[in-house]
Amino acid sequence: MQHVQAQPDMENTRVASADSVELPVRPTSFFDRKLVRQVLPWAVIAGMFVLWELAVRIFQIQQFVLPAPTAIFEELWRWRVPILENSWQTLMTTLVGFAFAIVIGGIGGVALGSSRVIYDGFYPALIAFNSVPKVAVIPVLVIWFGIGTIPAVITAFLLSFFPILVNVATGIATVEPELRDVLRALGATRRQVIMKVGLPRAMPYFFASLKIAMTVAFVGSIVAETVAANAGIGHLMLVASSRFEVPLAFAGLIVTGLMGVGMYVICVAIEQRMTGWATRGSDSVTFGN
Amino acid sequence: MPGFVRLQDVSLRYNEEETALALHRTSFEVEQGEFVAVVGPSGCGKSTLMKVVTGLWPATVGHVSVASRPVAGPLNCVGMAFQNSSLLPWRTILQNVMLPLEIVEPHASRLRKERSGYEAKARDLLALVGLKGYEAKQPWQLSGGMQQRAQLCRALIHEPSLLMLDEPFGALDMFTREELWLALQELWLARRPTVILVTHDLREAVFLADRVLVMSARPGRIILDREVKTARPRSLDSTYQPESVNLVHELREHISAARASAA
Lengths: 289, 263
Prior knowledge:
- The complex is a heterodimer.
- Helices cover 75% and strands 0% of the residues of chain A.
- Chain A is built from twelve helices and no strands.
- In chain B, the strands form two sheets. Chain B has a six-stranded mixed sheet with strand order 6-7-8-3-9-10, sandwiched between helices. A four-stranded antiparallel sheet of chain B has the order 2-1-4-5, with helices on one face.
- Chain B is of the alpha/beta class.
- In chain B, helix 5 runs parallel beside helix 6 and helix 7 packs across helix 8.
- Chain B contains eight helices and ten strands.
- At the A-B interface, helix 8 and helix 9 of A face strand 6 of B.
C-alpha cells in the first residue's frame, strides 16, 4: 500500500494490494496462548498440593487422618526402592492382564460385531457376566490359583476386557450399509469386508475403549493385590495402612496415579498415530478429547 | 438377443411380515453399453430396484439376469456410487479409488506386482474428472462435489461392465451437478459401460440417458419407457432445447399422475 495516492480508484487499490494488506492481529486471550495451555495443568496440580499442605497445617490435621504432601513425598523418597519394586510388579501384572484383554476383547469384538448369530447368542450372557462384581470373584480366584500374581492378572483382565469387546463390536456392527453394498457388489467376501472396512472403522472405538480399559485394569490389579498378594503397590498400601503409616499409603496412591496417567498418555499417543483421520487434524486431541 | 440386464415380472417384498410389495411385476431390459435412467416419485422403489439388479437383495418372485446369467447372489464386478459419499475416511483419495482393485480379480492378485501401473491408471482417471493434485488428500479435505467425482472414479477403476448410480449427484448444488453430468458423460463415452442411473432429477435423466424409465408409486413398476434421441456428446444447452424440455414435461406429467393415483 505504498502508492495509494497513485491509484485513485479505491476498488482497484484493494484488488491490487490484496497480498500486501496486513491482516489485523486478533489479540489472543491469555488462556489461549500455547505456553499457558501447556503449563496450566501442571499449575493446577501444584496448586492443589499447596492448598492441601496449607489446609493440613492451618487446621492441624493429624498425620494418620490426612498427611501433608511434604510428609508424603518424604516417605516416597525414603521408601523409594520398595515402592519402585512394588510398582514394577503392579505395572507388569496390569499390562499382562491388559494385553490378554486386548487380544481376547479384540477377537471377541470382531466376532460379535460381524455375526448376527454370535451377537444374538452371546450378548445377553456377556451382559450378565459384566454385571457380576469382579472384585467378588477374587476369593474364588484365590481358591483356584492361590495368593500371588495370577489372581491380580485375571482381575485386571476381567475388568478391562469388556469395554474393549463392546467398543470393537460396535465399530464393526455400525459400518454404513452403502459401504458394505459397494464392497459386496464388487464380489468381496465377508472377510474382506471386515478387513477393508470393519476393522479400520472400529479403530477409533478400539482406542477410545483402551483408555477406559487401561484405567480399570489398574483398579483390578491393585484391588486384587490388597486382597490376595504378597507384592505390588496394592499390597504395599495395605501393609502401610495396617501399620498406620498413612503417608506411605498415600505415597502408594500417588505412584498409582502416575502410572495410570503414564499409560493413558501412551495410549493417546498410539491412538493419534493410528487414527489421526478420525480427528481431522484438529488441535484438541492432546488429551484425547 | 436378450438384454444385458433383464428383469422379468420381478416382485419384491422386504420381509414376510410386510404385506405391501416394494416392486410389483417389474420388467425391463437394458442393452449392453446402454445408459438408462430410472425416475419416479419418491419412495417408489428405485433404490430397491438397484439392489435387486445387483443381487444384494433377492427378488421374491420373478427372474433377474445379468449378462445372460441368472442373478443368484451379489454380483461381482459391479461399480456403484451413492448419494452420500461412501469414501473411506482413513484412506487417501488415491487409495480410495484403488479399493476395487484390491477385491476384483484378476486385479487383486496382480496389484502387488504391478502397483505402479495401476496407480498410474487411477491417477489418469482422477485427472479425467479434474482431481489432479488431490490424490494424496483425505476425503474430508475435499468438497462434496469433489468427493462425488472421486466416488465415480472408484466405481469405474476396475472397468466394470455394469455401473449402478443411486442419485450420485442428489446432494450437490445445481452448478456442481451440471459439471459432473459432463464429467460422467465423458467417462461413459470413453468406456461405454452399461449404466443404470437412479435419479429424481428429470433434466439429469434426459441429459445423460439413452432411455428413461418411469416408475409408478409403490409398489413400483415401469409405466413408461422413453428413448432420448439427442445426439452425443450432448451439451448442457441441449437440455433447454424444445425436444428435451418437452420430454422433461412429459416425464413430469407421468410422475405427477403416478403420485396422484397413489395418494
